[in-house]
Amino acid sequence: MTAEATVAAGKVHEFTTRSGADTVEVGRKLAKLLKPPQLLLLTGDLGTGKTTLVKGIAQALEAAEPDEVTSPTFTLVHEYEGVRNGVPVKLYHLDVYRLEGERQLETLGLDDLLTEDALVLVEWGEKFKSLKKRATGEIAIEAKGGDARKIVVTLKD
Hints:
This protein has helices spanning 20-33, 50-60, 102-106, 110-113, 129-134; strands at residues 2-7, 10-17, 38-43, 77-84, 87-95, 118-123, 137-143, 149-156. It is of the alpha/beta class.
C-alpha cells in the first residue's frame, strides 16, 4: 500500500511491506523518485531492512543485482555505477554505525561522493549533526511485527 502527502518540507511517501521481496520492490519504486544529487539518511533499528531497500534501488538503477548488494558495515562505503533515465548515476551506500565522531566521518571523503550524478544513501546517518543538516531527505523503516515494515520517505524540495 502506498500513500503520498505533501508537507511543508517537501513530499512524503509511505509504503507498507510484508516481506523482504516487498521491501526490494519498494526500493525499485523509490529509485524513480530519487534524482541526483541526493544525500538520504536511512533510519531504522538493526534488521529492519535498510540494506534490503538499497538492493531494490540498486537493481532499478541497473547498478547491481539484489544478491550483490550487502551491508557496508565493515567497509563503510559500497559504490555502484548505474543508469537513471539513460543518464549515468553513481549510487553510494554507506554505513556509519561503527563511526564514533565527526572526525571519523570526515575521513570518508563525503564531499567527494556528493557529485551532481550521485545518490548517497547513509545508514545510521542520524547519529551525526553534519549529515542531518546536509541530508536532502530521509527513509525511515520501522518493523511492524514479523516481516512487516512501514517505510516513510521524506524528500525535501
